[in-house]
Design goal:
globular, 26% helix, 4-stranded antiparallel sheet, alpha+beta, single chain, 4 helices, 11 strands
Amino acid sequence: MLFEKNKTYTEAEIMKHARNGGKVGIAISILTDDYNQYDFHPSDRGYMLYEVNGEQVNPLTRVEANKQYFIVTEQHIKLLGHIWIRWELTAYEHGVPCVDSKRPYGNSGILDAIIDILDLDYDEDLDGHSDELESSIRKLHHETLICMQILVRNASIELGEYVADKHDQNWRPLQ
C-alpha cells in the first residue's frame, strides 16, 4: 500500500501519487494509477490516511507509453442514457451538477439497474447474483467514468476506440 495509517503526510507527498484528485473541503481525496482511492484528513502536523477504498476496477482497455486507450461499446452507451444527473448543493456558493451517487441509473441499486437496462440474463432463483455477473457489472459501472469523460470532451460519443494522453482526460477518437 502506498500510504500507512498513523503516519503524517504533506499535501505534496500525497499529490505526487495522484492520478487525479485533490482537496475536498479541508480533506484530500486522490485516485492513484492502480485505481484505489485514498482519503486523508488534516491533523495538527499534516494529513493522515483516513480510508482506502480499494478493489477498484481499472476501466482502461490498455496503456502504452504515454497514451491510454478505451473502447466504447453499445452497453456503455445504453448505460449513459440512464445516468441520473442532479444538482448538488455544496459548501461552495454555486453548487455543481453531478451523478446521483446512491442511484446513478435511476430508482434502484447499481447491480439491479444495470441488469435491467442491459437486459442481462441471470438466474432469479439464486440468492443474489453470481460472482462472474457481479464482476462484469462492476467493471461496466467503473467504465462509465471514462465514457462520461469522452462524452463531455467531444460533445458526443460513438462506438469505437478512443485515446488520451496518460493521466489526462483529453479523449478523442482513435484515427
